[in-house]
Amino acid sequence: MKSTASLFHALLAVSMLAGCSSYRPTPAAFHEVLDQPYRLGAGDRVRVTVFEQDGLTNTYSVDQSGYLSFPLVGAIPARGHTAQQMEKEIADKLRQGYLRDPDVSVEIDRYRPIFVMGEVGAAGQYSYVPGLTVQKAIAIAGGFSPRANQESVDITRDINGKVMTGRVVTSDPLLPGDTVYVRERLF
C-alpha cells in the first residue's frame, strides 16, 4: 500500500510539472523560411516601375485579400508571391493588349509591421526593417519590463498560410508580420 501511494505521488508530481511547461520546440519550417525569398502579404507596399510608362510607375499596396490593384489590368494576386514573380505577372498582364514588350521592376517599398506584446515597456505595432532581430524589436518597444523573461520569447509567424508559434532566443531574426510575445519570468 505504501509503494502504491509513493508511486501515485510521483506520478502526480510529474504530471503537475508537465502541465506547467508549455514549451514546444520551434518547428523546422520556422527557421527554413528565413533562407527563402521574401513573399508578399497584406499590408506590404511595393514600388512598381514600368520603364518608359510614367503613368503606370507608382507605389501600390497589397490589400487585405492579398491583391494588388494595378491600372489597366485590375487586381493581381500578390499574397505569397516574390517580387520577381510579381514582375513577371504584371508584365504578362500588360502584354495582353496594352504594351508590346513591357519592362517591369518590383521592389519592396514598405514591409508589413511587426507586433511586440507582453513584458515590454510599450507594447504595440512597429515598422519592420530588414535585419531586425527579436532583441532590436524589444528595444524599439521600450525594452524589457522588470518582470520579463529575457532568455527567450515566443514568436507567432505565418508560414505558407499556416500560423505557427515557436520559442526562440532574442538573437533570432524577425520577418514582417511576426508577433513577438515576451513572457513573464517565474521568479
Automatic annotation (TrEMBL):
<dbReference type="Pfam" id="PF10531">
    <property type="entry name" value="SLBB"/>
</dbReference>
<feature type="domain" description="Soluble ligand binding">
    <location>
        <begin position="114"/>
        <end position="164"/>
    </location>
</feature>
<feature type="domain" description="Polysaccharide export protein N-terminal">
    <location>
        <begin position="35"/>
        <end position="108"/>
    </location>
</feature>
<feature type="signal peptide">
    <location>
        <begin position="1"/>
        <end position="18"/>
    </location>
</feature>
<dbReference type="GO" id="GO:0015159">
    <property type="term" value="F:polysaccharide transmembrane transporter activity"/>
</dbReference>
<dbReference type="InterPro" id="IPR049712">
    <property type="entry name" value="Poly_export"/>
</dbReference>
<dbReference type="Pfam" id="PF02563">
    <property type="entry name" value="Poly_export"/>
</dbReference>
<dbReference type="InterPro" id="IPR003715">
    <property type="entry name" value="Poly_export_N"/>
</dbReference>
<protein>
    <submittedName>
        <fullName>Polysaccharide export protein</fullName>
    </submittedName>
</protein>
<dbReference type="InterPro" id="IPR019554">
    <property type="entry name" value="Soluble_ligand-bd"/>
</dbReference>
<keyword id="KW-0732">Signal</keyword>
